[in-house]
Design goal:
There is one protein chain. This protein has 139 residues and is mostly helical. It contains 7 helices and no strands. The longest helix is centred in the middle third of the chain and has 21 residues.
């Protein structure tokens, strides 16, 4: 019981790895929409409405960014780079397409992905990651 209320981490590396993997799967699901023509037409129309040049490039860039960050998180591969990609993609969603930074009103979902990306950036991938495997091989 004392350990439960202790400020010391409990299975920190395992916990980070599990959260990282689930976050990766969710981002892969989001990014996979790049292969759905109807969804991509809808996303492209959002950029058209905002009068962006090359709206399809903007839409596909965001979705491919989500997909690549998701693969990085799921595998624990280049985790910090995947974190930066996720932060960039979801910051763009919040400030370009969303409610212009109203993270307490309409952009909570993308903001949570940003927060998780910061966690992985600062803590690393945790256990069961390609990054950890590659680092061990170098040593």
């Amino acid at each position: 019981m004392n350990r439960f209320f202790s400020p010391s981490p409990v299975a920190q590396n395992n916990g980070i790895a599990i959260v990282r993997f689930i976050t990766g799967i969710l981002l892969i699901q989001q990014g996979w929409e790049a292969f759905d023509n109807a969804k991509m037409e809808m996303y492209t129309s959002w950029f058209v409405e905002r009068k962006y040049s090359n709206p399809a490039i903007w839409a596909y860039s965001g979705k491919v960014g989500e997909l690549l960050a998701g693969v990085g998180f799921a595998l624990g591969l280049f985790t910090r780079l995947a974190s930066v990609e996720a932060i960039a993609a979801f910051t763009g969603i919040i400030y370009i397409l969303g409610d212009k930074g109203k993270i307490f009103h309409g952009d909570q979902y993308p903001f949570l992905f940003i927060l998780l990306a910061f966690v992985f950036f600062f803590t690393g991938p945790g256990k069961w990651s390609v990054d950890q495997f590659l680092l061990r091989k170098k040593k």
